[in-house]
TrEMBL record, chain A:
Family indicated by similarity: Belongs to the phenylalanyl-tRNA synthetase beta subunit family. Type 1 subfamily.
Alphabetized GO MF terms: ligase activity
Residues of the FDX-ACB domain: 749-842
Binding site for Mg(2+): D473, D479, E482, E483
Cofactor stoichiometry and binding remark: Binds 2 magnesium ions per tetramer.
Pfam families: B3_4 (PF03483), B5 (PF03484), FDX-ACB (PF03147), tRNA_bind (PF01588), tRNA_synthFbeta (PF17759)
Catalytic reaction equation(s): tRNA(Phe) + L-phenylalanine + ATP = L-phenylalanyl-tRNA(Phe) + AMP + diphosphate + H(+)
Protein's cellular compartments: Cytoplasm
Annotated protein name in UniProt: Phenylalanine--tRNA ligase beta subunit
Domain (B5): residue spans on this chain: 421-495
Cofactor: Mg(2+)
Database matches in CDD domains: PheRS_beta_core, tRNA_bind_bactPheRS
TRNA-binding domain: residues covered: 42-165
UniProtKB/TrEMBL annotation, chain B:
Cofactor info, note text: Binds 2 magnesium ions per tetramer.
Chief place of localization: cytoplasm
Aminoacyl-transfer RNA synthetases class-II family profile domain sequence ranges: 135-372
Gene: pheS
Catalytic activity: tRNA(Phe) + L-phenylalanine + ATP = L-phenylalanyl-tRNA(Phe) + AMP + diphosphate + H(+)
Cell compartments where the protein resides: Cytoplasm
A single Gene Ontology CC term: cytoplasm
Pfam families in UniProt: Phe_tRNA-synt_N, tRNA-synt_2d
CDD domains given in the database record: PheRS_alpha_core
GO molecular function, a single term: magnesium ion binding
PANTHER family the record matches: PHENYLALANINE--TRNA LIGASE, MITOCHONDRIAL, PHENYLALANYL-TRNA SYNTHETASE
Family: Belongs to the class-II aminoacyl-tRNA synthetase family. Phe-tRNA synthetase alpha subunit type 1 subfamily.
The protein's required cofactors: Mg(2+)
Protein name: Phenylalanine--tRNA ligase alpha subunit
Length: 844, 377
């Protein structure tokens, strides 16, 4: 809602010194969000005067038509002589009154005017367009131009030489208010004025307080078939409008400042009254209506062309205004082309009109506006709630203005169809606002504030509050509490702290998420947070099998991009995109990680029902919602490319490889206190020979939690990744389930260590992890640690063989081990490895 | 070694003569002094203190002496050997000091050489900032609650007093999940990508069953905005909910004040402005004093502030007293309990706290943006 300060002053006697910024601050305090204060005419300086065009000489030989004019500007130029002005616009004629800016003046935008040579003549000033004066260029053209625009042509009654800054009300301040959905009444000057008056403690001149004649039986006939959708309909008739009547300057200017475009007198008046009182109006050309005006629901599929020329197919829920032929308006949203007021220049200009001031159900209007994508000013107001009791006043105001400005005659007939409604009351303890705010206001203050809002208040300890017709949003005691607290000032609320019961800090799961992030960052990975939107084509690029469960996705009904309509089932697409983006921007040595949810549809897809809100849902009802949601486990993933260790003055670097990806998985598992089982694996995105399957033991059974290794060259190519990109992804929730809980501290023996090295020759395809497990199992309790320190393949071993060299460290808790004891332990370890893997002690 | 000989006269043993022993000692001392490298000293050490050195040989002879002579000869040799080993140690220390001084100079390096062998990792500032905000409340006794990102409409809207026709439920704001029949059927699923962290309010109340409930919920939320310098369809919020007996708006105000002071400095202030949200009543928009200009840009055209647009205040988010209808829908008696709640955008706070100019920088995962933020924020 754009509120010109000059207009606002009509209803509230604000101190003359009060600026727009001052009013803004006051209104913000009471809860109107005044976003900006626009300074109209800032920097504007005269002389800017009315001029009468005396002569026009068309200059030839230029690329565009140019006029050399003489203009009578009265005595504004000091001489009284005609002013010589060159002008490029053509929408004016000799004798027209125009707006002339003279040398020495400054127009908005710091545009200083001086006499200047142009097109071979000297131009002593300029004939102005609305745009040049910062007032918008619509609705000001002379009748001779089709679309308006161009030079402002004023009504002929204004004297040459008159100051145009004042005449056109060019200097003003406009408050731009973002009205919240509960405050429909603030979409009117009346509503904003009421808030202003309360904020300043000044009386309000309510523009809705008009003398309205009582309804009678000889007004235009109206029949309402749906009193729920329309509980009030006022119709008035004005005849004998002068077709040549134009909107006066003040009317146009107010509409412009409020952000509306002047159109024609009848339309302008309806818009003006809507802005003033908040009541949307519709004006029908009476000669176009046939028979009784009706209000009913549309027939399903009924067709109707709205004012904007769009032919619409109606829904059975749409509320329509009809005459004997059918729909003539979409109630509260937009009128019909068939009863549109005819333009004043066309043949058969409208002279008689029927004015509709009705009240429609908010929800019905909202749905119709949305269904037909018609966000009109009227619909905006009805959706948020219009004061039903302002309808007759609004109709009267419209009638008055048509009589005054268009020379019309008000017919005596007054139609009012009203479905009776009881005033709404709320009861609440008088100290309820105090208890909500944490402040003792006292009953007297509470009552006074509610009365300022427009409520009638009765009662002592318990108040019975009748809310005003323009506040449909006030329905509960807390709504009333808010009114009191905001008028007393949110800024005056004290600052206190509640005393929560002692908390237990983060959960294990929350701690784990943090630890995993820190550990991966500590290992050199940089976190990326990617969008979860994917296209299903990425599964082909990742080489997933046709029946891979990861291909089952949750799809959006309204994705931002049709390319990416699904939610991720793996973190890899997003993380690999981030990798590719970084690579493209010149960062080639990359290690990225992400932890986040993936979305896995359940076996059976269900609809989440709409549970009641007037009670706690049952556990079964809550479970039914859970069953309709996808499973959303948290995954952790890393991707690597380029160098893991940089080359430098210290020597060579080291490229990131499959082992770094596996190591990242171990890092995550370690943080979870889980032993990770790494086995040779195969899975779509990964290089078939360089893919580790990651497992953990949950409830005694090994379960797969993810994969790590080097990506498949086909995947690298399909996704445009750097060569030998590596990746790891695992299900963090599963890993967490495998956790042992609290770590048990190791016992530290202080006896000396006994070291034994063994080199075992095994077949090449025997995994090192298996050999190591055999050695560990065989070595027994004396084994403190085992470490693979070399892998060797060569001719002397024979084809298909490899040698694995391990350092075994033995130590006892209670004594120094003898060489024989250590050797014996080593021998049993080797023996077990030999038995299970065919390992042969090298050199044996 | 010679056999003991009771009649043996020590004076008769050449090597044990006092002047001989003095000579041996002096020769040793001279040799040590003459050694000018550690290697030369090592040679002198072997020659004069080793097993075949004259003093060692002399020492052996002592055993052959008659008992009455042993003491005297032993004392004489012992004193000489003591002097020699002392001199050796002194010279050793002297030469080592010389060597150290020389070698350490030779070993000097250019310590300004860069060392970026393994580039540092980092956590995303949105992650660490959310944790930091949550920690402020954890320290006050709140607990951290979580909820699903793909959420039932009932939790995201209905339970929070959004009517079925609320504008926020339209396609232009909310991502809807396709119904079980797929896109063509157009059926509804009743499932959305949560548009705020507020559904966790309802979940927390339902899970905990009986107040007091004091929780915060940081998390990811979704709205159908295209990515640009100031918007992103995927962003982060932190939600707070307190439900207890006798909670007031003053408690809300105090909690907000505490938060901004903990995060932005002890001199920070907040301001509440009336606003409207379905799930709170009364509702407020919360501002804090501009973190950058501290309000000094207001009415001061010479020092304009881009962060707050010279307004002096920055809008942080919405808050208010939990609407009694929300309590009812979650099975909490609004006659007995009241509560307050707020929700803030993390991106926005991060943008002005760390002078981030473009939303896309926080979204794209560029390591150059994230790395400087390190582990904590």
């Amino acid at each position: 809602m754009r509120v010109p300060l000059s207009w606002l002053r009509e209803y509230v006697d604000l101190p003359a010194t009060e600026t727009g910024r001052d009013v803004q601050a006051k209104l913000i305090e009471v809860g109107l969000e005044v976003e900006t204060v626009e300074q109209l005419g800032a920097g504007l300086k005269g002389p800017l005067v009315v001029g009468k065009v005396l002569t026009i000489e068309e200059l030839e030989g230029f690329k565009k038509p140019i006029r050399f004019c003489t203009v009578d500007v009265g005595s504004a130029n000091g001489t009284g002589e005609p002013q010589e002005i060159v002008c490029g616009a053509r929408n004016f004629a000799v004798g027209d009154k125009v707006v002339v800016v003279l040398p020495g003046a400054v127009l908005p935008g710091d545009f200083a005017i001086a006499a200047r040579k142009t097109y071979g003549k000297t131009s002593h000033g300029m004939i102005c367009s609305g745009e040049e004066l910062g007032m918008g260029d619509d609705g000001w053209g002379s009748p001779r131009t089709e679309s308006g625009g161009g030079i402002i042509v004023l009504p002929p009654e204004h004297e040459a030489g008159t100051d145009a800054i004042e005449l056109l009300e060019l200097v003003d301040e406009v408050l731009d208010i973002a009205v919240t959905p509960d405050r429909g009444y603030a979409l009117s000057m009346r509503g904003v004025a009421r808030e202003t008056a309360t904020a300043y403690g000044l009386p309000l001149r309510d523009p809705a307080l008009l003398d309205v004649p009582a309804p009678n039986s000889f007004g235009y006939p109206v029949k309402i078939d749906d009193p729920i959708g329309c509980d009030r309909f006022t119709a008035r008739t004005v005849t004998g409008l002068r077709p040549e009547a134009r909107s006066p300057i003040w009317l146009k200017r107010r509409l412009q400042k409020a952000g509306m475009r002047p159109v024609s007198l009848a339309v302008d008046i309806a818009n003006y009254v809507m802005l003033e009182l908040g009541q949307p109006l519709h004006t029908y050309d009476r000669s176009q209506i046939q028979g009784t005006i009706g209000v009913r629901r549309a027939g399903q599929g009924e067709k109707f062309t709205t004012l904007d020329g769009v032919k619409r197919v109606l829904d059975a829920e749409d509320l329509v205004i009809t005459d004997d032929r059918g729909p003539i308006g979409l109630a509260g949203v937009m009128g019909g082309a068939n009863t549109e007021i005819a333009d004043h220049d066309s043949e058969g200009a409208t002279t008689d009109v029927v004015i509709e001031a009705a009240h429609f159900e908010a929800l019905s209007v909202a749905r119709t506006a949305r269904r037909h994508k018609l966000g009109s000013e009227a619909a905006k107001r009805f959706e948020r709630g219009v004061d039903p009791q302002a309808a007759s006043a609004a109709a009267q105001r419209t009638v008055d203005l048509l009589v005054l400005l268009a020379g019309g005659t008000a017919e005596a007939g007054v139609t009012e169809v009203i479905a009776p409604t009881a005033p709404r009351t709320i009861t609440m303890p008088a100290d309820h606002p105090d208890r909500v705010a944490g402040v003792v206001y006292g009953r007297e203050t509470v009552v006074r504030r509610l009365q300022q809002v427009g409520c009638d208040v009765y009662g002592q300890d318990d108040l019975t509050v009748t809310v005003p017709s323009w506040r449909p949003d006030l329905a509960e005691p807390n709504d009333l509490a808010e009114e009191v607290i905001r008028l007393e000032g949110y800024e005056n609320l004290p600052s206190t702290l509640p005393k929560p019961p002692a908390g237990r800090g983060l959960t294990e799961r929350q701690r784990l998420h943090r630890r995993v992030g820190r550990a991966l960052a500590g290992a050199g990975f940089v976190e990326a947070l990617s969008y979860p939107f994917i296209g299903e084509g990425v599964f082909d690029q990742l080489g997933l099998a046709a029946d891979d469960p990861a291909r089952r996705v949750v799809k959006l009904a309204n994705p931002l991009s049709d390319e990416e309509p699904a939610l991720r089932t793996t973190l890899l697409p997003g993380l690999l995109s981030a990798l590719r983006r970084n690579d493209g921007r010149g960062s080639h040595d990359l290690a990225l990680f992400e932890t986040g949810l993936v979305f896995l549809p359940r076996e059976e897809l269900k609809v989440a029902g709409r549970l009641p809100v007037d009670r706690r849902p049952t556990d079964e009802e809550i479970a039914s919602l859970t069953e309709a949601l996808p499973v959303q486990p948290r995954h952790a993933a890393v991707v690597l490319a380029g160098a893991r260790e940089q080359a430098g003055w210290w020597g060579k670097g080291r490229p990131a490889d499959w082992a770094d990806a596996v190591e990242a998985a171990r890092t995550v598992a370690h943080e979870a206190g889980v032993e990770l089982i790494v086995e040779q694996g195969q899975y779509g995105p990964w290089h078939p020979g360089r893919c580790a399957e990651l497992q953990v033991v949950v409830d005694g059974a090994a379960v797969r939690v993810g994969h790590a290794g080097e990506l498949h060259p086909r995947v690298v190519k399909a996704l445009g990744l750097p060569a030998r990109t590596c990746a790891m992804e695992l299900d963090l929730d599963r890993v967490e389930q495998a956790g042992d809980g609290v770590l048990r501290a190791p016992r530290i023996s202080t006896y000396p260590v006994a070291t034994q090295d063994v080199a075992l020759v095994v077949d090449k395809d025997v995994p090192a992890a298996v050999v190591e497990r055999c050695l560990t199992d065989g070595a027994g309790d004396l084994l403190e640690s085992i470490r693979l320190f070399d892998v060797f393949e060569g001719e002397q071993l024979g084809a298909g063989k490899k040698s694995l060299a391990y350092a075994l460290r033995f130590r006892a808790a209670d004594r120094t081990l003898t060489v024989d004891e250590a050797s014996a332990a080593r021998d049993t370890a080797v023996a077990l490895a030999a038995e299970r893997t065919g390992a042969v002690l090298r050199g044996a | 070694m010679s056999a003991p000989n009771k009649s043996y006269d020590p004076v008769e043993v050449e090597a044990l003569k006092p002047e001989e022993i003095e000579r041996m000692r002096d020769e040793a001392l001279a040799a040590f002094a003459a050694a000018d490298t550690l290697d030369a000293l090592q040679e002198a050490k072997v020659a004069h203190t080793g097993g075949t050195s004259p003093l060692a040989l002399a020492n052996r002879e002592i055993g052959a002496l008659p008992p009455q002579a042993k003491a005297e000869a032993g004392k004489r040799v012992g004193m000489a050997r003591g002097a020699v080993s002392k001199a050796l140690a002194a010279r050793q220390a002297e030469l080592e000091a010389e060597r150290d001084a020389r070698v350490l100079v030779e070993e000097a390096v250019d310590v300004t050489l860069p060392h970026d062998r393994t580039p540092a990792g980092a956590r995303h500032p949105l992650t660490t900032f959310m944790e930091r905000v949550a920690d402020v409340f954890v320290a006050m006794g709140y607990e951290v609650a979580e909820g699903p990102e793909v959420e039932a409409e009932w939790f995201n809207f209905d339970a929070l007093n959004f009517t079925p026709d609320h504008p926020a439920r339209q396609m232009q704001d909310t991502f809807f999940v396709q119904g079980p029949q797929g896109a063509d059927a157009g059926g509804e699923s009743g499932v959305v990508l949560r548009t705020h962290t507020s559904p966790v309010q309802a979940r927390a109340l339902l899970e905990r069953r009986e107040p007091p409930v004091y929780i915060v919920c940081p998390g990811r939320v979704y709205r159908t905005d295209e990515l640009d310098a100031t918007h992103t369809p995927v962003f982060h919020q932190i939600e707070l909910l307190a439900v207890d007996e006798g909670l007031t708006m003053a408690d809300l105000k105090g909690t907000l004040d505490h938060m901004v002071q903990a995060l932005f400095g002890a001199d920070m202030k907040t301001r509440l402005r009336p606003n409207y949200f379905p799930f709170t009543e009364p509702s407020a928009e919360m501002d804090m004093v501009c973190y950058v200009c501290r309000g000094e840009s207001v009415g001061n055209p010479d020092r304009p502030c881009r962060t707050c647009g010279s307004e002096g205040w920055i809008e942080l988010g919405g808050c208010g007293m939990v609407n009694p209808k929300v309590l009812t829908a979650c099975g909490v008696d609004p006659q007995k309990y009241s509560g307050f709640a707020f929700g803030f955008g993390i991106e926005r706070m991060l943008m002005f706290r760390h002078n981030v100019e473009d939303m896309r920088d926080m979204v794209e995962g560029d390591v150059r943006f994230t790395r400087p933020f390190g582990m904590e924020i």
